Amino acid sequence: MSPHRASPPGAAVLGEPGGRPVPEATIVRLAVYLRALCSLAEGGATVVSSEELATVAGVGSAKLRKDLSFLGSHGTRGVGYDVSRLVARLELTLGLDRAHVVAVVGAGNLGRALVGYDGFARRGFTVGALFDADPDTHGGSVLGVAVHPIGDLDPVCRHLGITIGVVAVPAEGAQDVCDRLVAAGTTCVLNFAPVVLATPPGIQVRQVDLAAELQVLSFHLARRAAEVLGDGSHEIDPAAGAGARDPRTKTVVSP
Amino acid sequence: MSPHRASPPGAAVLGEPGGRPVPEATIVRLAVYLRALCSLAEGGATVVSSEELATVAGVGSAKLRKDLSFLGSHGTRGVGYDVSRLVARLELTLGLDRAHVVAVVGAGNLGRALVGYDGFARRGFTVGALFDADPDTHGGSVLGVAVHPIGDLDPVCRHLGITIGVVAVPAEGAQDVCDRLVAAGTTCVLNFAPVVLATPPGIQVRQVDLAAELQVLSFHLARRAAEVLGDGSHEIDPAAGAGARDPRTKTVVSP
DNA sequence: GAGTGTGAATCAATTCACAGCT
DNA sequence: AGCTGTGAATTGATTCACACTC
Known about the structure:
The structure is a homodimer. The relative contact order of chain A is 0.10. In chain A, helix 1 runs antiparallel to helix 4 (about 85-95). Chain A is built from 9 helices and 10 strands. In chain A, strand 2 and strand 3 (about 80) form a beta hairpin. In chain A, the strands form 2 sheets. The first copy, chain A, has a 7-stranded mixed β-sheet, with helices on both faces. Chain A has a 3-stranded antiparallel β-sheet with strand order 1-3-2. Chain A is an alpha/beta fold and about 260 residues long.
């Protein structure tokens, strides 16, 4: 249907908060740092070193410092980072200083689970509306969120000031839903449907592909099995490797 | 610290399916290609070119060919790839030739939604057991899958031959659940809890962080807003030498 | 002619290592 | 002394472009 281009993969643009373009990979980690910081704050910490924070966040300290440097970070040399100050900086950078209202499209198992997911609310994301194709659901509500027909997506989203759309419908309907979200002025889409969405440029799409995640794990199981069995499933095999090495896994610091 | 040459020189990079190590980024895309191929196959296609397949998968054709070359791919020059042959090759590589039984820990909204997610079954993943901390759920079942106490995780998983564990519990319980899964012999974990799991080496962890995904989208909303408003949210580094916004820079992929 | 497979070049991300603050 | 911030070096991934096959 849509002759749009797929949204550009990386597309890290410049003119960013700290004055430099923030790499995509870094942005994802900022949210992780924020989480880690909050849990440290709950534990009573008021300052943290990059080493401590990195450990909690599961990354190396150098990477963490580099990441934070993109925000023109406010650490103190010889001391560390002021926790509440850094929390505030991360929240600002991630746009969490203002509340966001999201629309969830698809009131199936997944859609309903997302409405109830408290991790969203905890970060200032509220589900303003649910949409579904099934007329039986219309007029009902899930945890206090009204369910609307998909045909009403445009007016309802505009009225509620929706800025992020979540696609939780089966693959067949996903592109149509996406097109409607974009037409309704939404510029950010979180897609759970197992299809690559085509969008006009400027629209941000994040894909969460549950089946693909399992397949990646399955790949590693298969690789390991092949290794142990001396690789029975494949042809080419020059060097039969000793199996001890583990190239993957985000292993902790090796002593 | 000086583990410069710490890695054993004898054990060369291990041999992967196609004979070369497969980059992580590629593995994720293989699942996408498989999906794209299946939908093309349903449309009656029997051969595809890298160009066609790449379009459906939302990547560039060069990247696709490079990715497939890691499997010692079987395309035909001047023609393209035999669809069913390539499907078989991808399934083999991703370990989908054998069925996998997964355990879902956490029978809340998300856990139950995952049990019902047909995208799993469609790729040969069956949920063999559900576990939950709440005694009220024990002995019950969700869509035919029995709910067990978390304390029974080890025996039940071993009995069912679980190879993949899915963590769908709140953050507080996640590390404990992960430890139990690992103790029960599971080597692959799909984690939905918003914490970084610590695991022994050799354990594969994939993290799905729903709140983080929204935060990444929120970041882009904030960046865009800052751009439009001439960036009111930041102070640091007023020494922006070059023009504030540079519409160039690799950015948009030309059609 | 059409389209794969792949070295070589480019681009991005990570890690190192150290200068510079407190 | 301790720890951040960051250029420089390295590693990894993507893109190019073309030889080669059908």
